[in-house]
Amino acid sequence: MNRDEKEAGKSIGLAWAASLVATALVTLLLSFWLQSASFMSGGSASMQKQALLAEMRVNLVRSVEKEKSAVLATTDEESRTYAEQSSAAAREVNRDLKTLESMVAKDGSGKEKELVDKFSKSWATVSAIDATLLETATENTNLKALNLSSTIGEELMRKIDGNLDKLTARVKPEWRKAQMEKTAEDAKLAIRNLVILQTHHVNAADEKAKKSIEETMQAEQKSIETALNKLNTMTGKKSKPYIREAKTEFSEFMRLNTEIVRLSTLNTNQTSAALSLGNKRKAEAECDRTLQALQKLAAGTP
Questions:
Q1: Angle at CA 124, nearest 5°, toward 286 and 48?
Q2: Among 71, 75, 140, 185, fewest CB within 10 Å belongs to which?
Q3: How confident is the model at residue 302, as a pLDDT?
Q4: pLDDT in tens, 57-94
Q5: How many angstroms from the chain centroid is the CA of residue 218?
Q6: Can you tell me the distance from the alpha carbon of 222 to that of 298, in angstroms, rounded to the nearest whole number?
Q7: Mind listing the UniProt keywords for this protein, alphabetically (predicted)?
Q8: DSSP annotation string for 151-197
Q9: Percent of the chain, pLDDT > 90?
């Protein structure tokens, strides 16, 4: 993984570092509460309700934590595993919500009914967002594009460099050698610019920014093609295989660039990150606040 790829992952990862710690602590504390409440769950309806609400909060936090892990995961397999764990916890919340609705409909106060309805609406928002978020999180198209650039792309770049070096190594006279070396260096620099642009394209948040980068890519491509064609006309018969190889490798590089741009344009990592850090965070926080309010009512505390 190169420096740009590490920075791309870090920029997303840092946004959740504190949140993941917080959710882990909340899960631990709620689990302890749930264990103590479960001993009394056979008692009053109030205690049964409190135990149910505590379990809902635990599963809400688990669902959120596993969703964030799915977004942060660097492989499809890890993303799918975390996404399924998030969905499983969400199914537990749905199951308990039906039980809660039944209990409150039977003997709940007007305030409890109001809060349950409020939770249901916020939870519906979370579920709707998750339907898209968890699917996009498992596709990892931005990470796949970065991986192609840093592996196959950089290997092709090194091969082109090698052939251009061989092409100019034994050129005579010196003035001609200097001229060819300058043209070869222009081509090498433009290819390096393309590799950098690939990373910028992957990290670009919106379509307009990506399109602008694609225009710059096209300009660099033309510069490279012009340089390689110029070298081809300057090359003697014995050195023709080197320029031929360099042109073939550059064609492969541009086919790879097309695939990188395609994956980057799908933008699933950026999309899932935006969903997770945006409206979903607000809706899930509202869910937890509502469950806390219901717990206080069930416990008879102000």
A1: 70
A2: 75
A3: 63
A4: 999 999 999 999 999 998 999 999 999 999 999 999 99
A5: 27
A6: 70
A7: Membrane, Transmembrane, Transmembrane helix
A8: IIIHHHHHHHHHHHHHHHHT-SSHHHHHHHHHHHHHHHHHHHHHHHH
A9: 77
